[in-house]
Task: inverse folding
């Protein structure tokens, strides 16, 4: 076996052709440029849209740092396929620092116009189903960083120096609506109302005309967010902290008032007529209890599961706790959604339980893209990096909606390992990072893939059936 000379016609990421086709069909660069506007005086070189799409494409291909842009640039054949060729790490960092705060907010409008364009290209029946009931999820996730001189970060409650992406997402489509990068000690409740209003503005017009619901965990336990949602005509379900007035409500609930939760063994739900001061008048308290075994509970009083126990049981040692007739962990949710019957109470709790959809978005942006760290000492560059990761997750969601096969019950069979929506890591393994040789036949670029890799051709065929952006 001999090793020959390097062949510049080989690329390690042939699937970038699919990313470039998706970006072109949806007009992603054009939409971002139109929303953000110029970020430099001279009208040449890279604009805002090319910067963010270039970062997203590099992260989709598995690059973890800004220098990954230089590795992509060194791939001669890959530059023919990528949606933004020629972008270097130094250029990207310099352009990101030119953004102003209003321009970062305008990125949301650019992503919104692309999402609306995607919605116009899905079948009418699915579009109607997606817009009938829209769920907006709010959440934040900490990203630990290292280096004392990094700007825009701070120590969080765990003592980690971190930044905090704060995101509002459209749960049914699994795409971002609005986002901001906070520091580790910033309280998301302070900006939650503004983030919700921007998320509602970013929803496609068809979706805004339907039923809109908000889900948030107990970190958003604040009357201001509930009032803003109520004024905007948004139904909400917000987790409540386990404060003394809520524990007292348990004494007024009879055993017959509890109903079995949906698809959750040992769980029951009930409703109480309670609302904190300054919350909307039609707010009710939804309570979920889950029967626990003493083996599931830690002896440490600081453990998360022990804190869900009734205060009278939290202080008991394990041997005394095991003698109790029943051990329940409790969760509290404040909602203005109709909970007038037991079936409706169970349905609302089941819907609220699926707010973990936004956790999948964070997981994909961190472990599929590269939001698990913030690579620069400048807050503006880290904000661009965050948007690159979130745009990468949005691309995966758009690709799923546009190329997956719809079953008889509306379920989409995509490119994931279980025929569901593929996470970025799966797309990278099955589609993006497939080596190929590129040559030109009569001026037409042609990719030669290894045997058995037919997914790229199938996805490109489906994307090319979509109408181009006029």
Result:
């Amino acid at each position: 076996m001999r090793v020959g000379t390097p062949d510049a016609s080989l690329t390690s990421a042939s699937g970038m052709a699919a990313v470039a086709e998706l970006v072109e069909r949806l007009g992603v660069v054009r939409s971002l440029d139109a929303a953000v506007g110029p970020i430099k005086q001279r009208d040449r070189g890279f604009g805002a849209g090319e910067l963010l799409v270039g970062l997203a494409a590099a992260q989709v291909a598995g690059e973890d740092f800004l220098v990954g842009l230089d590795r992509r640039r060194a791939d001669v054949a890959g530059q023919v396929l990528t949606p933004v060729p020629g972008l270097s790490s130094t250029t990207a960092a310099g352009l990101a620092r030119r953004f102003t705060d209003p321009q970062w907010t305008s990125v949301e409008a650019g992503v919104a116009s692309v999402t609306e364009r995607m919605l116009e290209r899905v079948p009418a029946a699915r579009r109607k189903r997606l817009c009938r009931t829209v769920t907006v999820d709010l959440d934040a996730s900490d990203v630990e960083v290292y280096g004392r001189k990094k700007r825009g970060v701070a120590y969080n409650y765990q003592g980690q120096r971190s930044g905090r992406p704060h995101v509002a997402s459209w749960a049914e489509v699994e795409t971002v609506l609005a986002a901001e990068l906070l520091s580790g000690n910033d309280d998301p409740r302070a900006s939650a109302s503004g983030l919700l209003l921007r998320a509602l503005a970013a929803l496609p017009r068809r979706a805004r005309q339907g039923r809109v619901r908000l889900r948030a965990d107990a970190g958003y336990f604040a009357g201001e967010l509930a009032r803003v949602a109520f004024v905007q005509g948004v139904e909400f379900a917000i987790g409540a902290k386990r404060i003394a007035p809520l524990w007292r409500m348990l004494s007024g609930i009879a055993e017959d008032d509890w109903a079995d939760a949906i698809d959750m063994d040992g769980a029951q739900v009930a409703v109480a007529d309670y609302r904190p001061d300054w919350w909307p008048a039609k707010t009710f308290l939804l309570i979920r209890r889950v029967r626990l075994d003493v083996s599931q509970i830690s002896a440490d009083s600081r453990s998360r599961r022990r804190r869900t126990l009734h205060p009278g049981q939290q202080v008991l040692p394990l041997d005394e706790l095991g003698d109790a007739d029943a051990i329940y962990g409790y969760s509290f949710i404040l909602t203005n959604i109709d909970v007038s019957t037991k079936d409706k109470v169970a349905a609302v709790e089941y819907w609220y339980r699926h707010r973990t959809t936004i956790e999948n978005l964070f997981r994909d942006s961190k472990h599929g893209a590269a939001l698990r760290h913030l690579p620069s000492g400048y807050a503006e560059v880290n904000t661009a990096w965050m948007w690159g990761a979130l745009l990468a997750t949005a691309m995966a969601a758009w690709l799923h909606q546009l190329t997956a096969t719809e079953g008889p019950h509306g379920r989409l069979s995509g490119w994931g390992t279980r025929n569901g929506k593929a996470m970025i890591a799966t797309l990278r393994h099955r589609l993006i990072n497939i080596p190929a040789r590129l040559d030109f036949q009569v001026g037409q670029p042609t990719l030669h893939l290894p045997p058995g890799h037919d997914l790229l051709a199938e996805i490109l065929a489906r994307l090319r059936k979509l109408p181009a952006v006029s």
